[in-house]
Automatic annotation (TrEMBL):
Catalytic subunit of the periplasmic nitrate reductase complex NapAB. Receives electrons from NapB and catalyzes the reduction of nitrate to nitrite. The keyword Manganese does not apply. This is nitrate reductase (cytochrome). The lineage of its organism: Bacteria, Pseudomonadati, Bacteroidota, Cytophagia, Cytophagales. It comes from Fibrisoma limi BUZ 3. It catalyses: 2 Fe(II)-[cytochrome] + nitrate + 2 H(+) = 2 Fe(III)-[cytochrome] + nitrite + H2O. One of its GO terms (molecular function) is 2 iron, 2 sulfur cluster binding. The chain holds residues 1 to 711 of 1197 of the full protein. The keyword Phosphoprotein does not apply. Keywords: 2Fe-2S, 4Fe-4S, Electron transport, FAD, Flavoprotein, Iron, Iron-sulfur, Metal-binding, Molybdenum, Nitrate assimilation, Oxidoreductase, Periplasm, Signal, Transport. Its EC number is 1.9.6.1. Coiled coil: none annotated.
Length: 711
């Protein structure tokens, strides 16, 4: 028996065919009918069935304890949810609705995201819900909003075959978005004139297969993009008519980028001025200019400015809303975009509405028939939640309880020693997860077993706005339940039964589609039946509307802004004259090196899934530190030697890998290894700093000051 579904790892959102043998064995292969991957899968996707067949780490039953010195004990679902509801009610009565919070995940299905958002914002009366997408995409979200009027990725994967210049900045798609990268490589192989430019302080596999690698100093992306903007203006590569007709802010932008000469910019970036000139020439002469970026741009204390500086290049050249052209933020997680659509961030409401907009709040309150007013201020974001749990000073945020769903913050948050202390201090911690390998289980008062991939139905939206249906193929083990059902059961225990009396995920999805009516994210034309018939569609997709038009054969909206009418109030896109400074943690004599963190090819996030697959572990079985031979020599460090990396907040001990793939002054540590099940000494986020971008609240993972010594 075969089933079509979607890979649950990254935002590429590859279609997968799962085959069930009569003996129960599963196999997987790429779905040739899925437009996103056309049958291809990367190493993680090809090995997904092993994570399903190995159930040795599964949480099977609800567990509870009355204090954390006791062992967790098996209880019934009713007992676990009734106690949690009683604790939540007591805290809310005593300290107000902001005393509780949900921390969710880009792994959640759209229905789960929608329902937990409805519960806390519309019924508990707090905006304290945030997602690990805050650590990933929130700088891109704010960049899009400020430039284009809304969090809207304008392009699609088919633009790859239409482009002739790819500007890849702060991303390593060869490892982290492999199927997109294979499409780019195939396109270049068939069209040798196509140019790929990679901007990255590290010589990654992406950089190695690019035509031009710009190994800039960490934190100088804006300097580079502004210099390219200056050259595009000076060389006459801008689209004057497009700017006059559709763009605001050009005068201020031109003044800003003219402040620095190309020689100064090259010096600051630590690269050759001719490389900047070549980049500008290639972009300026291209017919299709596609930029791709991820965490090197987003995970920064100036992440929003970095995003704006890149989107600016598309606006001044008019390279947006046309085939092969546009800014393309590569989504990290499989459903980070679906979560944003339904309002799964502390500052937004469903269909990209804003919690600070009274009209938006009123629309949603009416739709939900909310018994409370939706709070008019953003709730606590990811890192703010953990800071609040630790802070009991008078006047501090009153957060006492946190419910963590399908994410492992004690590996993935920055400054983990502080995050761990915060969770210890929390009055009440609920962990809802698939796996007992989540590091948070050790701190939980209640553990709720969730159904995994293939064990529940729902939808996800990938990086190109493509919604795909995921069927239930297997029964969940033990008493594990779909996340959406856990939330509606809990809401019923809280006394909100009338508004949470669902029987199926399809009912939840239908309700969500109706709240999008008339918005830029309108998906009123989408249903499970439609998705089963069409396999996938791209939003917007209004009922009977233009989303189903001839351009895409009824498969939705391939590109946004093709009419050059943007989502701002005056329909004009906005250029932003962004300063090129960086406000990261300073280096000094004690901590002279910059540490950057990131993914490796065959692991996914905190390794709760990929860490169990021996084939995937073979690529890099242990954490390691990449350091330049010159920096190593100065410190007496040999290749393969155990070293201690010390920062202002903690230390890590791993083996050194001497390589010229990192710039002198920079070192790299993979982000995947945690403390409890993997390797205490390799937990990269012991070292990362708590700085965040002031607008996106995204952490500065890519720039922490450290020292490295032989151990
Ligand atoms: Fe899964 Fe991403 Fe690999 Fe596709 S590219 S198979 S979505 S991990």
């Amino acid at each position: 028996m075969t089933h079509q579904t979607t890979c649950c790892y990254c935002g590429v959102g590859c279609g997968i065919v799962v085959r069930q043998e009569p003996n129960g064995r599963l196999t997987v292969e790429g779905d040739k009918d899925h437009p996103s991957n056309q049958g291809m899968l990367c190493s993680k996707g090809m090995n997904l069935h092993y994570t399903v067949m190995d159930q040795s780490d599964r949480l099977l039953y609800p567990q509870m304890r009355l204090n954390r010195s006791m062992p967790l004990q098996r209880v019934s679902w009713d007992t676990a949810l009734e106690r949690t509801a009683a604790v939540f009610r007591t805290l809310i009565q005593k300290y107000g609705p902001d005393s509780v919070a949900f921390y969710v995940s880009g792994q959640c299905l759209t229905e789960e995201y929608y329902l937990v958002n409805k519960l806390i914002k519309g019924f508990i009366g707090s905006n304290n819900i945030d997602t690990n997408s805050r650590l990933c995409m929130s700088s891109a979200v704010v960049g899009y909003k400020l430039s284009l009027g809304e969090d809207s990725v304008p392009v699609c994967y088919d633009d790859i075959e239409e482009a002739d210049v790819f500007y890849v900045q702060g991303a390593n798609p060869a490892w982290c978005h492999p199927i997109i990268w294979r499409r780019i490589e195939a396109h270049k192989a068939a069209n040798p004139h196509v140019k790929i430019i990679c901007v990255d302080p590290r010589r990654t596999d992406t950089a190695r297969s690019s035509d031009l690698h710009l190994p800039i100093r960490p934190g100088t992306d804006i300097v580079l993009n502004n210099a390219i903007g200056r050259l595009l203006i000076e060389k006459g590569y801008i689209d004057d008519e497009f700017i006059v007709d559709h763009i605001d802010g050009f005068t201020a932008y031109r003044e800003q980028v003219m402040q620095r000469t190309i020689a100064e910019a090259a010096d600051l970036c630590g690269i050759d001025a001719d490389a900047i000139r070549t980049t500008a020439e290639w972009i300026g002469r291209s017919k299709g200019f596609l930029s791709l970026w991820t965490m090197g741009m987003n995970q920064s204390v100036v992440g929003v400015n970095k995003n704006l500086s890149l989107i600016n290049l598309h606006l001044i050249t008019g390279r947006i809303g046309k085939p092969g052209n546009g800014p393309f933020s590569l989504t990290g997680q499989p459903n980070a975009m679906g979560g944003r659509e339904v309002g799964g961030l502390a500052n937004v409401l469903p269909a990209h509405r804003d919690v600070t907009n009274p009209a938006h709040r009123a629309e949603v309150e009416t739709f939900w028939n909310s018994p409370v007013k939706i709070a008019d201020k953003p709730g606590l974001t990811a890192t703010e939640m953990f800071e609040a749990l630790a802070d009991d000073r008078p006047g501090a945020a009153p957060l006492k309880a946190i419910w963590i769903i399908n994410t492992n913050p004690l590996v993935s948050l920055p400054d983990l020693n502080a995050a761990e202390s915060a969770l210890k201090k929390a009055r009440y911690v609920v962990v809802q997860d698939v796996s007992n390998r989540a590091d948070t289980v050790a701190f939980a008062d209640v553990v709720l077993p969730a159904a995994a991939w293939l064990e529940k139905e729902g939808t996800m939206t990938n990086a190109e706005r493509r919604i795909t249906y995921l069927p239930k193929v297997l029964n969940a083990p033990g008493e594990a339940l779909p996340d959406v059902e856990i939330i509606w059961r809990f809401a019923q225990k809280m006394g909100f039964g009338d508004a949470f009396s669902y029987n199926t995920a399809a009912e939840v999805y239908h309700e969500y589609t109706q709240i999008t009516a008339g918005t830029n994210v309108d998906v009123t034309g989408v249903s499970y039946e439609l998705l089963k018939a069409k396999r996938s569609v791209q939003w917007p997709y209004p009922a009977g509307g233009w989303g189903q038009g001839a351009e895409s054969g009824g498969a939705g909206t391939k590109r946004l802004f093709t009419d050059h009418s943007f989502y701002t109030t005056n329909q004009r896109a906005q250029l932003h004259a962004v300063p090129d400074g960086n406000n990261s943690e300073p280096t000094d004599d004690d901590f002279p090196l910059v540490l950057t963190t990131g993914r490796i090819r065959d692991q996914w996030h905190t390794m709760t899934k990929t860490g169990r697959v021996s084939r995937l572990n073979q690529h890099a079985p242990q954490p390691f530190l990449q350091i330049h031979p010159k920096d190593a020599e100065e410190r007496g460090i040999q290749h393969g030697q155990l070293v201690e990396i010390k920062g202002r907040r903690g230390e890590v001990r791993v083996k050194a890998q001497l390589t010229e793939d990192v710039r002198p002054g920079l070192c790299f540590l993979p982000m995947h290894w945690g403390k409890f099940l993997n390797n205490t000494l390799g937990r990269a986020n012991n070292l990362t700093n708590p700085l965040i971008d002031p607008r996106s609240k995204e952490p500065d993972f890519k720039f922490s000051a450290v020292q490295v010594t032989p151990y």
